[in-house]
C-alpha cells in the first residue's frame, strides 16, 4: 500500500460509514449533519486524487449550500426535532435486497475490470484551478454556458413554485 | 494508487444511496440519498480523469457540471417538497397516492377496493 492508499482507505471508511448513518438514522437533523461528514470525507478523497479545485467546490457548494438548503427544508416542513419512528417506509427489506444486489454486482464488475489498473498521480497539477479552468473555458464553454442558463431556469422555477402570490389560483374543490 | 479503491468506494456509496431512495419515507431524506448517489458518480468521474490523464480535463469538468446540476436539482426539489407540504401537511412519499393506479391492490393493509372507492 502506498501512502495515498493508507490515507484514502480510512477517509473512504468515514464517507461510507456516515453515508450509511444518513440513510439509517431516525433523527432528521442528524441525517443532514452526517451528510456533511460524508461529503467532507469525499472532498478529502478528491484531494487525494489530485482534484484540488473539485474538492474545494465540493466543500463550498455541497457542504456550504446544499446541506444548508436541506436543513431549511427540514425546518420549513416542521419536522420533529428528536426521534421519529416513521422515517422508513414498509419496503425496507426490498430496498435492502436491491441495494445489496446493486453493491454486489457493481463491486464484482469494477474489481474484475480494474484489478490491475493503477493511478499515477504525477506532480498533482492535473486538478489545479489553472488546469481545470483552462480545460473548462477552452473546450467546455458551450456546456458551461448552457448549464448557467439551466441553473437560472431552475432557480426561477423554484421561486415561482414557492411564492404564494403568483402562479395558478386555488381551484374550488381541488382539495379532497 | 490503485483504481480499485475509489471505484469500489463509489459503488458502495451508490448502493447506500439506492437503499436510501427506496427505503425512506420522508421526501427530504430521499433527496439526501440522491445526493449520495450523485457523489458516487462524481468520485468515479474524478478517478477516471486521474487514471486516464485526459487532456481536456473532461472528468473534472463533468464533475463540476454534476455538482451544479445537483444544486439546481436540490433547490427545485425542495421547492416542490415545500409546496406538497403546504397542500397536504405531509411529505411522506408513500402517502402521495393521487396518481396511483386505482385498480392496483391497496397499499393500506385491510382497506378494500370498495372502501377506497367510498373514500373518494
Automatic annotation (TrEMBL), chain A:
Keywords from the UniProt entry: Cell membrane, Membrane, NAD, Quinone, Transmembrane, Transmembrane helix
Annotated catalysed reactions: a quinone + NADH + 5 H(+)(in) = a quinol + NAD(+) + 4 H(+)(out)
Subcellular location(s) of the protein: Cell membrane
Transmembrane domains' residue ranges: 6-24, 31-53, 59-81, 93-117, 137-161
Membrane-related topology note: Multi-pass membrane protein
Matches recorded under InterPro entries: NADH_UbQ/plastoQ_OxRdtase_su6, Nuo/plastoQ_OxRdtase_6_NuoJ
Top-level class of the enzyme under EC nomenclature: translocase
Keyword Hydrolase attributed: no
Keyword NAD among record annotations: yes
UniProt xrefs under Pfam families: Oxidored_q3 (PF00499)
Domain of life: Bacteria
EC number: 7.1.1.-
GO CC annotations on file: plasma membrane
GO molecular function, one term: quinone binding
Known role: NDH-1 shuttles electrons from NADH, via FMN and iron-sulfur (Fe-S) centers, to quinones in the respiratory chain. Couples the redox reaction to proton translocation (for every two electrons transferred, four hydrogen ions are translocated across the cytoplasmic membrane), and thus conserves the redox energy in a proton gradient.
UniProt family annotation: Belongs to the complex I subunit 6 family.
Record-linked PANTHER family: NADH-UBIQUINONE OXIDOREDUCTASE CHAIN 6
Protein name: NADH-quinone oxidoreductase subunit J
UniProt lineage: Bacteria, Bacillati, Actinomycetota, Actinomycetes, Pseudonocardiales
TrEMBL record, chain B:
Protein name: NADH-quinone oxidoreductase subunit K
Molecular function via GO: NADH dehydrogenase (quinone) (non-electrogenic) activity; quinone binding
UniProt cross-references to InterPro entries, sorted A to Z: NADH_UbQ_OxRdtase_chain4L/K (IPR001133), NUOK/Mnh_C1-like (IPR039428)
A cellular-component GO term for this protein: plasma membrane
UniProt cross-references to HAMAP family, sorted A to Z: NDH1_NuoK
First-tier enzyme category under EC: translocase
Gene3D superfamilies assigned: 1.10.287.3510
Keywords, comma-separated and alphabetical: Cell membrane, Membrane, NAD, Oxidoreductase, Quinone, Translocase, Transmembrane, Transmembrane helix, Transport
Keyword flag NADP: no
Amino acid at each position: 500500500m502506498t501512502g495515498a492508499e493508507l490515507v484514502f482507505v480510512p477517509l473512504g471508511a468515514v464517507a461510507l460509514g456516515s453515508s450509511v448513518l444518513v440513510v439509517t438514522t431516525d433523527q432528521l437533523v442528524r441525517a443532514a449533519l452526517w451528510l456533511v461528514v460524508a461529503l467532507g470525507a469525499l472532498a478529502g478523497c478528491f484531494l487525494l486524487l489530485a482534484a484540488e479545485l473539485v474538492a474545494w467546490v465540493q466543500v463550498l457548494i455541497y457542504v456550504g449550500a446544499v446541506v444548508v438548503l436541506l436543513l431549511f427544508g427540514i425546518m420549513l416542513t416542521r419536522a420533529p426535532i428528536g426521534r421519529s419512528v416513521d422515517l422508513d417506509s414498509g419496503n425496507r427489506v426490498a430496498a435492502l435486497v436491491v441495494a445489496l444486489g446493486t453493491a454486489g454486482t457493481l463491486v464484482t464488475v469494477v474489481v474484475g475490470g480494474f484489478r490491475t489498473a493503477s493511478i499515477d498521480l504525477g506532480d498533482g497539477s492535473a486538478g489545479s484551478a489553472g488546469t481545470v479552468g483552462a480545460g473548462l473555458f477552452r473546450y467546455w464553454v458551450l456546456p458551461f454556458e448552457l448549464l448557467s442558463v439551466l441553473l437560472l431556469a431552475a432557480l426561477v422555477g423554484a421561486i415561482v413554485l414557492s411564492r404564494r402570490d403568483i402562479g395558478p389560483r386555488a381551484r374550488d374543490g381541488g382539495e379532497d | 494508487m490503485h483504481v480499485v479503491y475509489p471505484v469500489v468506494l463509489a459503488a458502495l456509496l451508490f448502493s447506500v444511496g439506492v437503499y436510501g431512495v427506496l427505503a425512506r419515507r420522508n421526501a427530504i431524506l430521499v433527496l439526501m440519498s440522491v445526493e449520495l448517489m450523485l457523489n458516487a458518480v462524481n468520485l468515479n468521474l474524478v478517478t477516471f480523469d486521474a487514471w486516464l490523464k485526459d487532456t481536456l480535463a473532461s472528468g473534472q469538468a463533468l464533475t463540476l457540471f454534476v455538482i451544479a446540476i445537483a444544486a439546481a436539482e436540490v433547490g427545485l426539489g425542495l421547492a416542490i417538497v415545500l409546496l406538497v407540504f403546504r397542500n397536504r401537511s405531509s411529505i411522506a412519499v408513500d402517502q402521495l397516492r393521487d396518481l396511483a393506479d386505482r385498480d392496483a391492490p391497496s397499499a393500506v393493509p385491510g382497506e378494500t377496493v370498495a372502501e377506497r372507492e367510498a373514500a373518494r
